[in-house]
């Protein structure tokens, strides 16, 4: 095994480790919010520093691989994809930390009405965003572009749910009914959280696109080689 092969194997292992770390962060953020758990939200914040460090470390490794080994073809595509993927992962981690921050800082002081969460389909929004991240990760790990493409279909569903949720929250915020059960501050926080989850979906889609670039470009290259041999 050559040095560059060893470096690329290690690079992919590091990316997968970061993927699982961020995946766990998003799951914990959902639990911290649903349970209004300050301890869980603090755990997320502690791990956030590790996510940031991994992004910087992997980016530096990519730069070193390019400088030392001058990779080409699929090797180069992997490195280029990695440079973008770690940025997207770090941003997903940021969104998870910001969702948990509302709990950690005790900014949501009044319990959110469960009927409102049902009305905006909050659980469905969170689950689809998490599924998109899971599919993007599985697609990269297994170099499976069919799984990666599932992210695009789910993104359409997420966008619809997001739009409906924003519309519902906007109408509630504009209501002059003095008996409305939800505080304006909670409505604003839900606006922010729903927007963050929609952005998580966009970032998962970006990761899937990078996987398709890396994997399918490699397949196309092999097809051309086969034609030349004929």
Describe the secondary structure blueprint for this structure.
Blueprint: H1 3-35, H2 38-69, H3 73-104, H4 114-119, H5 122-142, H6 145-174, H7 184-229
Helix pairs in contact: 1-2, 1-3, 1-5, 2-3, 3-7, 5-6, 5-7, 6-7
Notes on the structure:
- The protein has 230 residues and is an all-alpha fold.
- It has two domains: 1-107, Phosphate transport system protein phou homolog 2, domain 2 (Methane Monooxygenase Hydroxylase, Chain G, domain 1), CATH 1.20.58.220; 111-211, Methane Monooxygenase Hydroxylase, Chain G, domain 1 (Up-down Bundle), CATH 1.20.58.
- It has seven helices and no strands.
- Residues 218-230 have low confidence and may be disordered.
Task: Summarize this entry quickly.
The chain is 87% helix and 0% strand. With 230 residues, the protein is mainly α.
Order of secondary-structure elements: HHHHHHH
Number of strands: 0
Task: Provide the residue-averaged pLDDT.
Answer: 90
Give the CA-CA distance, first to last residue: 29 Å
Largest sheet: none
Tally of discrete structural domains: 2
Give the CA-based shape: elongated
CATH class of the largest domain: Mainly Alpha
Structural class designation: mainly alpha
Parts with pLDDT < 50 across at least 5 consecutive residues = 218-230
- Assign the CATH architecture of the largest domain: Up-down Bundle
CATH topology of the largest domain: Methane Monooxygenase Hydroxylase, Chain G, domain 1
Strand content: under 5%
Q: Radius of gyration, rounded?
A: 21 Å
- What is the H level of CATH, i.e. the homologous superfamily of the largest domain? Phosphate transport system protein phou homolog 2, domain 2
Number of helices: 7
Helix content: over 70%
């Amino acid at each position: 095994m050559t040095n560059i092969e060893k470096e690329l194997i290690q690079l992919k292992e590091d990316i997968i480790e970061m993927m699982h770390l961020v995946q766990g962060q998003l799951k914990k953020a959902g639990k911290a919010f649903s349970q209004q758990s300050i301890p869980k939200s603090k755990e997320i914040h502690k791990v956030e520093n590790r996510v940031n460090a991994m992004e910087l470390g992997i980016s530096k490794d990519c730069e070193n691989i390019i400088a030392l080994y001058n990779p080409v073809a699929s090797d180069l595509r992997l490195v280029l994809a990695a440079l973008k993927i770690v940025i997207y992962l770090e941003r997903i981690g940021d969104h998870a930390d910001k969702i948990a921050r509302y709990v950690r800082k005790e900014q949501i002081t009044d319990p959110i009405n469960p009927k409102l969460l049902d009305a905006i389909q909050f659980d469905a929004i969170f689950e689809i965003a998490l599924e998109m991240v899971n599919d993007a990760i599985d697609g990269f790990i297994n170099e499976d572009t069919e799984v990666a493409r599932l992210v695009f279909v789910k993104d359409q569903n997420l966008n619809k749910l997001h739009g409906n949720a924003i519309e519902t929250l906007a109408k509630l915020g504009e209501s002059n009914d003095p008996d409305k059960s939800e505080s304006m501050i909670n409505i604003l926080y839900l606006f922010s959280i729903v927007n963050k989850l929609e952005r998580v979906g966009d970032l998962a889609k970006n990761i899937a696109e990078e996987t398709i670039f890396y994997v399918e470009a490699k397949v196309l290259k092999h097809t051309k080689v086969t034609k030349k041999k004929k």
